[in-house]
Backbone:
């Protein structure tokens, strides 16, 4: 085996312990302000912000660095309308027939239904796609390891960057969402992972009164 080609690590921050804690606490406070929003205004958002956020997502770690994701950013009105109509068709089936009663019960506190006006109101939709495999130069398939996990991390970074930029997001998962391949002209081997709705909330936006688990509930510290 050939040894890997390496370069010196460029980023060596040297925060004191106190600075580190302050930065971590501040970041947590900022992230704790993030809420999933379902009422978007039509206020535009610069394409450059969307591009920077997607570049952040592209810095995500991934299995064997194979970067198994693709992002389609849509601001075109007609495409957003087509996506809304297709998503609502699936969602009507979901809410009326496909969703088992326990699932509908779990969704009750969120107040969601098959009506998805945000897919047209918000200035941007980002279709986040996962590629279970890619292609080698000779055209043969190249398996992507941990493709779903890697794409999940990348989408987390995308949401984090957009939140830090002052934008609201909604992680929308119409089910099934294969219709996105046809509308967006994406190859069949690529799977829609989620549809991220991005923009500004309306001024009087309401969000469900729901709560986050505490540190004790989500973490076990072993010393
Ligand atoms: N896809 C449906 C249902 C839905 C499912 C989950 I899990 C949610 O957290 C929210 C909604 C919809 O978008 O309405």
Residues:
């Amino acid at each position: 085996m050939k040894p890997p080609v390496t370069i010196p690590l460029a980023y060596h921050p040297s925060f004191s312990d106190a600075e580190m804690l302050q930065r971590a606490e501040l970041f947590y406070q900022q992230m704790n302000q993030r809420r999933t929003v379902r009422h978007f205004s039509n206020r535009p958002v610069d394409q450059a912000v969307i591009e920077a956020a997607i570049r952040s997502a592209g810095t995500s770690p991934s299995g064997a660095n194979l970067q198994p994701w693709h992002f389609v950013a849509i601001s075109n009105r007609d495409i957003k309308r087509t996506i809304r109509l297709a998503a609502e068709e699936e969602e009507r089936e979901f809410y009326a027939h496909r969703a088992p009663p326990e699932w509908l019960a779990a969704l009750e506190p969120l107040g969601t239904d098959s009506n998805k006006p945000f897919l047209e109101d918000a200035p941007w939709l980002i279709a986040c796609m996962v590629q279970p495999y890619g292609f080698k130069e000779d055209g043969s398939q190249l398996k992507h390891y941990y493709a779903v996990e890697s794409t999940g991390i990348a989408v987390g970074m995308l949401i984090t960057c957009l939140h830090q930029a002052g934008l609201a997001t909604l992680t929308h998962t119409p089910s099934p969402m294969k219709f996105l391949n046809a509308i967006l002209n994406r190859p069949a081997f690529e799977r829609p992972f989620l549809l991220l709705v991005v923009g500004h909330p309306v001024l009087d936006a309401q969000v469900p009164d729901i709560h986050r688990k505490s540190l004790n509930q989500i973490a076990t510290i072993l010393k």
Summary: Strands lie at 69-74, 124-130, 133-135, 141-143, 168-172, 191-199. The longest helix spans residues 77-98.
